[in-house]
Write a structure and sequence with these properties.
By secondary structure, this protein is of the alpha+beta class. The protein has nine helices and four strands. Strands 1-4-3-2 form a four-stranded mixed β-sheet, sandwiched between helices. β2 (235-245) and β3 form a beta hairpin. The two termini are 40 Å apart.
């Protein structure tokens, strides 16, 4: 059996870049939240207050993502032998739950406003929300580079990109109020903000929950991994294949390979490990070698019996 471990390390340059990104993103958003909340209370604009509340949750979200990013770079210990990479999965999951929880308050307040719409200065909303467009866009750009490779970074990016879009909507709503005095547009915009938040967050919630439950990362096809291992020379068949996420960027695998000739173990293990890393970006693999006629693996027997029991149960 071979166990290969490559601890995930973002690198000094990458770590410094994202440390600056998180710090700058949080600072810009805190400043904007204060401005938006003051003018939201002063004008009575629910859309501004709703957006300020959402931005506040994003600051907490950025803080969670930053903490997880820091923890993921710590080395493994005797007690945490996998390191702290899984904290990025928990941060992404908590971020999505925080955002969805904020929807209830926004929707409730918006619905109550329909019965008594307030007169709101449209120009103030336009100016304040325009500042938000700039700040949220700049913050989103800070996390744009690695959003496809890291679910934790993707969570930060999606939050800020959605905020930029929401702020654009608030600007348009302020323009409608300023030109046509349609004050009912304010609670309508609040509901639209809630819908946008939910749509942008649902995918993050689903993906992070799957990773937390040790599901196969969605960018990996289990069947393709199985076929690639079975197609290796000297492999008779495989069993007990497991693939799971150690973090939002690092994937692990364990498998039993049944060989026709066990005298070429080292060469095969090297080829299999390199193939998994290059083809599927699986950086940690645990591979157990077995001989088809000389070794009776209890796990394989257990798996076979489990499948038989399931088939028998379904046929009844």
């Amino acid at each position: 059996m071979v166990h290969t471990h490559h601890h995930h390390d973002h690198g000094i340059g990458c770590s410094q870049r994202y440390n600056r990104a998180f710090a700058l993103g949080m600072l810009l958003n805190i400043i904007y939240i204060v401005i938006e909340a003051i003018y939201g209370v002063w004008t009575g604009s629910l859309s501004l207050l709703a957006d300020a509340g959402h931005n506040l949750s994003d600051v907490f979200g950025l803080g969670l993502a930053w903490s997880a990013f820091y923890l993921s770079n710590l080395k493994p210990t005797d007690r945490h032998t996998y390191g702290w990479g899984a904290s990025t999965i928990l941060a992404a999951l908590l971020n999505s739950l925080i955002l969805i929880a904020a929807l209830g308050g926004i929707c409730w307040e918006a619905i109550t406003r329909f019965g008594s719409p307030q007169e709101i200065p449209g120009m103030t909303i336009i100016v304040v929300a325009s500042i938000g467009v700039v700040i949220n866009t700049l913050t989103a750009l800070l996390f744009m580079r690695d959003r496809h490779e890291d679910l934790n970074i993707k969570g930060a990016y999606l939050h800020m990109a959605a905020d930029a879009g929401v702020s654009v909507g608030v600007v348009l709503g302020g323009l409608a109020i300023y030109l046509w005095q349609v004050n009912w547009i304010d609670p309508v915009l609040s509901l639209l903000i809630a819908v946008i938040i939910f749509i942008g967050t649902w995918g993050l919630l689903k993906d992070s929950l799957n990773l937390a439950l040790l599901a196969v990362p969605k960018n990996i096809d289990t069947t393709e991994v199985q076929q690639s291992l079975e197609n290796l020379e000297n492999v008779h068949h495989i069993h007990d294949l497991h693939i799971w996420a150690l973090s939002t960027t690092e994937t692990a695998l364990s498998v039993h390979l049944v060989l026709t000739d066990v005298t070429k173990n080292d060469e095969l293990l090297s080829i299999a490990t390199e193939m998994l890393k290059e083809k599927f970006n699986i950086v940690q693999s645990t591979i157990q070698i077995e001989h088809g006629t000389a070794f009776d693996c209890p796990l394989e027997s257990l798996a076979t019996h489990s499948e038989s029991d399931l088939a028998s149960g379904l046929s009844k």
